[in-house]
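Morning!

As promised:
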Amino acid sequence: MSAATNFLVGVYEDDDVIMQACADIRQQGVKIHEVYSPFPIHGIDPILGYKRSRLNVAAFMFGITGTIIAFSMQVIMMGYDWPMNIGGKPQVAVPSFVPVSFEMTILMASLGMVFTFLVVSGLGPGARKLVLDPRFSDDKFILAIDVDKNKLSMEDMANLLKRTGATEVSHKEVTA
Amino acid sequence: MGAHSHKSVNLTDRYVFDGAGQRRVIIGMVVGLAMFALGVILMISGVGMSHDDHGASAGHGTEVHATAGHDAHAAAPADHGKTDAHAEAGHDAKATAGHDTHAAAGHEAAAGHADHHGPTWLTRVYANLWLNSLFFFGIALCGVFFVAINYAAWAGWSAGFIRIPMAFGSYLPVGGAFILAVFLLGHSELFHWTDASLYDKASPNFDPILDGKKAFLNLPFYLSRMVFFIGVWFLLWRMIRALSIKEDAEGGPKVTKFYDKIIVLAAVFIITFAVGTSMMAWDWTMSIDSHWYSTLFGWYHFASWWVSALSTIALTVIYLKEKGHLQHVNENHIHDLGKFMFGFSVFWTYLWFSQFMLIYYANIPEEIAYFYNRIDAWDQHYRLGFFFMLVPNFLFPLLFLMTRASKRSFLLIKIAAFAILGGHYLDFYNMIMPGTAKDLGGFGFTEFGALLFFACLFIYVVSKSVASLPLVPKNHPMLEESIHHDI
């Protein structure tokens, strides 16, 4: 369907080396497509220029929604729709509504976060992710550059990768 | 980023508690004492000491009864229960006369009760001293607990400022002495159960409920476990501190034997802390309302101490940073302390609410007595403070410390820490005052003076201790990790 994407793939041996490489490569004005690593590298996000995730804002919104739904549900049911005398308490006995509101807050926030994360990350059942080099799930650190989105020539960028410590550099064409 | 930027630490960094600083704190103590004395004099001369209007009058019992019945909503069954429970307490005559109300509260609440004198100015003074002794002792104790859990968990992030909470332990003997002294002097004013006639079957005061608790709630056992736990906590703190000093002198790279020994001591401390704080919560605070009990009270009491201690640690660290010390401690460490404050504020609320909601919902006389005293008794004397404390202890930390940015701001953490400390002082006030000072409780010169005195005393003792050691445990194996802490 769409045209093939050209990737320049550098393989690194060490997380500290690839962190420094990311900083150096970005300093040369080269855009990095993605870094793949066997484990989360602490502190790499700001080097790659990633902004903080706003997942927490989504979580708060979902949580508040849960609180409001649960609380209003109880007020409507217990106070107006089907009032019951339970232990002589007022119909709208706020303290007794807290546990349900709390649980609903947690449920909505956690489920909402999971689904938001899946949607934002393009994950979920049947999702296919790009694997440029399967060794990133073993012991190698992979740095991918989208060639067509950068102005430098392929050789220059390949040299840049080597200079920053890549042990292998290869060119991969991926048809989406 | 942290792994790359080179960070160094000033190993000889030392806080100096100089003459000017000492003078300021001592002036604070003197002013506190003066205010306290002024408050006592005013109370003796009767200012602000009138019992609530109905308190002195003969209609006392009836009025309370009316309020109680109104409050209980399920008037008929509840009243029935009350009468039953009351009969058990051995006040049948009064119960039939409708003079008294709750099984437990009635016995203690009625100011004009025969043979049991009501609170006087002296009760309020002792209650204040007791409140402040407990509050600051708890902060000191939880400071040591912070040290212990961080060692036991092999935590790295806190190593750079672990000497600060460690210094809190120096207040343990002072606070412990206050607790012991106030108890010995004032137990008959503070603790209803210390009245010997309650256990005398021949006496009209005989109280079958307290007689049943006698095996646990008696003076010799009470005093011995109090002395035991204060002593054990103090000794363990001394040993941990001594090892930390030894590590400075004899340790070095790849030497972990001191660290390993502290971990063992920390584990022992955590066990005695868990058992001890629970028991001391029953003894020192819960037994004030001596008929009443709550199974989660130990946790609730601990949560209040703990979150206050976390706030105090954060405040001390930020203070030292502003004085130019602890330069390796940055917003990442404060962020983690802020998370602790946030999390345990919610934890405290969880326990407070769990205790409140179940008792409110069940509405059993012998349980509800506790909340009756705090919400409705004495013309709703404590009601405002009781519900208001949820603001600084829950709503404010929850909303204010929720975002990442606020937990990383020194200023905002300071504001939150003061709010939490104030809120938990109020929490202790609500735990102690209604059972002791009853309708005489309030905020006046005595309260603010005592608080100022104890706060300054705590600052004085802890500052001395902070100044006595280098601020950085230079051979702590986790120090490097703490310096590079990055979240």
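The first strand of chain A starts at residue 4 and ends at 12.

Hope this helps with the figure draft.
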